[in-house]
Amino acid sequence: MGSRRDFLEKLSVSAISLPILYSPAKLFAAPSEPYEGPVLRVAIMGLGGYATRVAKAMESCKRAKLVGLISGTPSKVVDWRAKYDIPEKNCYNYENFDKIKNNADIDVVYVITPNGLHKDQVIRVAKAGKHVICEKPMGINAKEGQEMVDACKKANVKLLVGYRMHYEPKTVEVIRMRQNGEFGKLKFFQGLSGFAIGDPTQWRLNKELAGGGAMMDIGIYSINGARYMLGEEPIWVTAQETKTDPVKFKEGVDETIQFQMGFPSGAVASCLSTYAMRHLDRFFLNGEKGYAEMQPSTGYGPIEGRTHKGELTQPHITHQTLQMDGMAQLIFEGVQPIVPVDGEEGLKDLKIIDAIYEAVKTGKKVDL
Ligand code: NDP
């Protein structure tokens, strides 16, 4: 594919100055070049909407392959087995998946279930001795996140979080520019993350399964984005909630939250998380020497954006393909992405989410 070649050429130039191990040029070697290294054998848990997207994207992976399924819906297992040629011995349900411990043909389980189920499922996978990739948000609060990190450490397995943007080429380029000091001293980040949610009966609007509302699901992109765009950890948050539909967005399920974060350098972030607005997917970073703006900034792509130096021209490659090949490289070779995708990274976002909810409740500035 021409676009991959162009991408390689551009990256091989910029990679010279990269102080990191992550090498997209190596990772996305032209399809004609055979890959003979190890392949990460992945079982997906929860065969829903996002899992369907991940499985399709993995068809283009060189280093990762879907080999197993964990599901509560037998009819889906039948369909997925046929589609992805998965042997029956690699299929489990939520009652018996601990038996995966005895399955030498599976390296990692990718948990893609409702947020409120992540903690227990991840800990069970860890106890079965398999590496875990968990979708965002990693859990529903920092206490859960810490338990997950501890359990995976104890079991000596890796815990990774599905932060696909950390592998997205335009995002990686802006982070590289920031690391190179090309924006100068950073002053401000704006993150707008939201969509208009439909079906009121879905798990995303159920406090127990979602852990909250828009903040857990989409606001987290602005939290994570503020951190990787500014390259710092916030030291305080303030937040304000607006609820226009208390029937749809029940107690504990946030519809819209505006929040602000302060960083040690003096930079500030102003963000919006909502389930009640369309077309809200924008990042803006402002520094003394330049700026970056991205819109869309975290959707499935293509991501679009520009900096004070011009348009971002890195090609679009399916995010989940890059992510899964990148995670395979991380697991097998220890190659780190430009921003971590590990459990500690997931935990940092959960601590900030806890602080935002606390700030909404108390109306006060919360120190981190
Ligand atoms: P879906 O509702 O489409 O799928 C969730 C699946 O989880 C279900 O199909 C079901 O699969 C399984 N499941 C197990 N228990 C339950 C339960 N009690 N209620 C509902 N489903 C259950 O959700 P998504 O795929 O959209 O989201 C799943 C996770 O992925 C979430 O954590 C979400 O935040 C994350 N996500 C991440 C995205 C990203 O870009 N990184 C994008 C979208 C989602 P089965 O029938 O096989 O058991």
TrEMBL record:
Pfam family, one: GFO_IDH_MocA
GFO/IDH/MocA-like oxidoreductase domain sequence ranges: 174-292
Domain of life: Bacteria
Keyword field: Oxidoreductase
Enzyme Commission number(s): 1.1.99.28
Membrane spanning residue stretches: none
Gfo/Idh/MocA-like oxidoreductase N-terminal domain mapped to chain residues: 40-163
GO molecular function: glucose-fructose oxidoreductase activity; nucleotide binding
Enzyme class: oxidoreductase
Family listed: Belongs to the Gfo/Idh/MocA family.
Name of this chain's protein: Glucose--fructose oxidoreductase
